[in-house]
Amino acid sequence: MSADLFVNEFPYGRVGLIELSDGRLLTMTPDWSAATSADGGRTWSESPLADAAQRDPWLWNPSLVRLESGVLVLQVLRQNDKGHMSMACCRSADEGRSWSDEHAINLPGATASPYHDAMIATESGRLVLPVRACFAGRESGQAGEKAMGTVRGEASIVEGHAQYPEIDIASAYFSDDQGQTWESTRYEIICWPDNGARGAYAVDEPCVAETAPGTLLMAARSTIGRIVTSTSDDNGASWSRGLPTDLCNSYSPARLVRIPGTFEVLLVWNQVSPEEIRRGFRRSRLTSAVSTDGGATWGSFKLLDCADPLDPVAHVEPGEPPSFVVARRECGELPANYCIFRYPNVDFADGNAYITYDRETFIYTGSPRRVRALRVTPIETLREDGPWDLRLSNDIPLGIESADRESNED
């Protein structure tokens, strides 16, 4: 069962989109073209900016937001030859037809970087950009430091991160002048359950949403088997320590967004049990839920996608206390219809939620293959108590295109 208005392939990967004043949708491409859709995201056309040739392409993980004034702000990310991340933003006062010069966000040499489309504008007009810095041991990414499985007789990476020494720590940048100048949070955010009695855990690829004026909620992935959250009561300038929630999650990024016109928040994430993680299914179920009380409780659970080998449930009970959980180093033979759903995003336009995520399937010849799925669903469908089962068929044709064999390791 699906309540989607339509399901399609999104041709621009992990980027966000916004609604323009004339009702069209807009996203930006790394080579500085404006991509627009006049039919709600079904088809797209591109138009290079007049000064595109004079601008440096950006690499990945952009953010695109609209301020209350109508100004658009685009955040871009680049990496130098030493691996340092350079974040910058620019503004458009003419619906994306032209953009200002770039303004630096982080200091030279900083290592923190954002999740894609993570920047938000709060009610006060403040821009908040959550980031994470990754610190890894020398074994990071070495051969053999991965969890492996076999699909249709071929070896496949099940998990890379969390299989080698690594810790990820979150923080945030914020701006009160439309992105011209930025400050960073004074302290970093670390998952610190039980007052440190069980160690520290990652707070990785955070995203944030405003749950009351000046009050923000952060959600992040971690190795503790749950979504980790942190809160800010000063509009993103400082944050509480990270703590695990009751929401089961593998070491896979979630998406937290504020529902327009409300202070309710929608979460989309890989909800899997600890044992499913150990078996190699850390991204084989995608769900959503809504909170009306700042993340204290969650309801309206929906099953958005699920690999056939797993139980098609929208709410997974934890079953065991929060603790370090990763895939077994050798997961053995995985089902022929093994599927992965990852890196979700949610944008809103015209009363609908535009949900995009990587949909990687192994059921075709030459698998795995990946497509960036676009699902357009009425917001009210996600807020209501039922129906809960909105999953797609595992073999739905979406214009599948080939993906790198090692693309499922992050």
**What sort of overall outline do the alpha carbons produce when their principal axes are compared?**
globular
- Total strands: the figure is 28
Series of H and E elements: EEEEEEEEEEEEEEEEEEEEEHEEEEEEHE
| Major β-sheet profile | 5 strands, antiparallel
**CA-based gyration radius:** 20 Å
N- to C-terminal separation?
A: 30 Å
Number of domains: 1
Low-pLDDT windows of residues: 399-409
Q: What's the mean pLDDT score?
A: 90
Please report which band the strand proportion falls in: under 5%, 5-15%, 15-25%, 25-35%, 35-45% or over 45%: 35-45%
Structural classification: mainly beta
| Percent range of helical residues | under 10%
What is the CATH-assigned architecture? 6 Propeller
Oligomer: single chain
What is the tally of helical segments?
2
CATH C-level class is Mainly Beta
CATH topology: Neuraminidase
Topology:
Blueprint: E1 6-9, E2 18-19, E3 25-28, E4 33-37, E5 45-48, E6 63-66, E7 72-79, E8 85-92, E9 103-104, E10 120-121, E11 127-136, E12 147-151, E13 154-159, E14 166-175, E15 183-184, E16 204-212, E17 215-221, E18 226-232, E19 243-248, E20 255-258, E21 265-269, H1 274-278, E22 285-291, E23 299-306, E24 330-333, E25 339-349, E26 352-361, E27 369-378, H2 379-383, E28 401-402
Parallel strand pairs: 12-24
Antiparallel strand pairs: 1-27, 2-3, 3-4, 4-5, 6-7, 7-8, 8-9, 10-11, 11-14, 12-13, 14-15, 16-17, 17-18, 18-19, 20-21, 21-22, 22-23, 25-26, 26-27, 27-28
